[in-house]
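A protein record in our archive is deliberately plain, so that people and models can read it alike. The tokens are whole numbers drawn from a learned vocabulary of local backbone shapes. For reference, a complete record is included directly beneath this paragraph.
>
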Amino acid sequence: MNKKILLAVLALVALTMQAQVDVSVSETVELMSILSRTAGFDEYNMDMGGQYTEDTEQWFAPFKAHPAVTCLRGLRGQYGISHNAPADLAVNLTIENGHVKIATSKECLNDPRWQDVDVDELVTLIDQFYTDTRFHEFYQQHQDFYNEVLSVFNTNVMPLFDQEWYPRFYGIGPAESFHVIIGFTTGEHNYATSRQIPGQPKENFSVIGYWIYPQYGMGFEGENARRFATPTVIHEFNHSFVNYLIEDENNAKLLGDIPERLLGQERFMLSRVQAYPESKTVFNETVVRAATAIYLMENGFTDDEVKQDIMSNMQSGFPWTPEMVSAMRYYTTHRDMYPTLNDYYPEIAKTLKNYLDAQPAIDLAVGQKLKNQAQTASSSNKAEVMETVELMSALSIAAGFDEYISHASDAYNQDLEQLLAPFKQHPVIGYYQGLRQQYHISYDAPMSLAVRLAVKKGKIVMLPEEQSAEGNGLDDRWNNVNMPEFLGLLNQFYTDTRFHEFYQQHQQLYQQELKNYNEKIMPYVHPEWFSGFYGNGQNDRYKVVIAFAGGIQGYGATCQLKGQPWDRFFITGKDTYNYENPSEKGNHIVSFFNRFYPQTVLNDEAYNATLRPIAEKLSSQNPRLMQMFGFRDASGVMSQSLENASNIIHMLQNGCADDEVNMQLDNDVSMGFKWERELVKTLCEYAINRNKYQSLADFYPQIANALNQFCDNEEKREAEVQQRINNALR
């Protein structure tokens, strides 16, 4: 095509795009966001909307037990419906004649998490919520506020957004339309989603979160607009040009396993923190983030602003961004060779493959020696069921504790619901709810009590315990509870519900599940390994308890009965079985039990003299890690580091495949423990040479040396990162 004609076509496309991009508020997005907030979703409870947040809380707080709220909360636990998923459904909803309906179909929903959900049933409940809460009235009352914010956005953000850049950069106009929606309940979170109404072009939506910080003001004003909102719009519009390319069969073949390898490098950060569980999403985000940096370079943003954008992406789980930006810059200066980004796909694949191939992996030359010592003997440890665990779980369900409620429709849960239905007003229920409110008895606290209860002569009794420097293991939240009074009410509940009869009637179910669990998962759990590895001679007992009642995801508890060693409990819900990958579940149990030992070995003088200084150095260099995990001091960082690395050693010594080991190691590194490869290599030497060291404490100097070497090299690595960024800007 003649160059002048091409430019004319691109200009026409740009004008078309200008008309397509609109900024609005969406009643269905607000509806799903507020419903998610009412259901307790953390990401929709950032409370950053000022007066609007207060209005929302006051209006919708009375509806926290609404069937739509309960259903959505259950879908979060069962299918992971969270973050962008509610927005994905929201843009596919419509409101007609005062009722909420789905405008497309379940198959048109973009997020795969919706595929197993009964969307029709959910939409019926959402419509009920819409009517019962008088949502439209709330929405209408805030129209002036919405319009004011939209005006601020259009005044401060959109003038910095050059839509004409996109067809020039990509060499083609968008095949899809793009819309910006302000999310007034999403806080700092921004979500990209789409809608495809049959017979119409695909529509892409960017939900941009509205927020106010007292010290910074609104996110759409002044410098905030340039620093936060504008790059977000720039970023999201790139998706219209990027996402569809990976669906091309030739491009998918070019990439091969590159997207999955990228996800594997930063799995924790990308999947858990950024909520990007799909490898295709990670790849598209990689390309979009690099393209956004190019946009900033070519549209008047300073070098410092571009560097900040690249560094932010690197810290957010995309450390390969400098290489991608360099590749994109080459693309922009060789457009005669690459008319469109699609033509450049082979070079993108090559750039990312080169980056991935250069990344270090665990030194399996050392690890192989451990694998040759693999402890393949079957564990004698067996999972069990406890009547008191079932009782406390059932009580928590009856009292409405969200974290114990399962929405699975299996026969056991139906039987339990039928058992509890007549007793929702039982005296213990109100008392127990008061304990949650007053003393925060919730989550693992009920299990901490359950493991030290027993049934004797038809009564619930508390077993006598040892008192030691470590205490007795009972959760501190129980300290101010009148235990005789509570146990009296609990016994009344136990008797009135005829709970023991219920428990006995389900023994066949319990035993069948325990048989499966013990045959498939427990062989990967080796309790004897802990004292052998740490060398501290403890005789702790390890107990895995399956909680059949409720939706428990996994709680820990400890107990030392009179004259007995410590019992360490891992209590796992029946909904969390993973028989398809039993080694993964077994490693998860080992990881849980493993955490007790680092906490013990750090409580000695050898730690204070040898490891504390390096622990403080590591923690001071990683404030984000401290904040993410809630570590109160440097010892927490060191304890978690030793726990992570020891889990890798256990995997090596107990026959796990190399790819499982590397995946776990990459996951830990992506969580922020950047020194773990060095620590694992060092602990391999310890495990191989156990005859030289009575315990891990004797090996502290070698651990300190390895981590100090890591810190010494960190300055060099930081300089290399800055050089990579500078290279990307040349």
The first helix runs from residue 3 to 20. DSSP finds 34 helices and 13 strands in the chain.
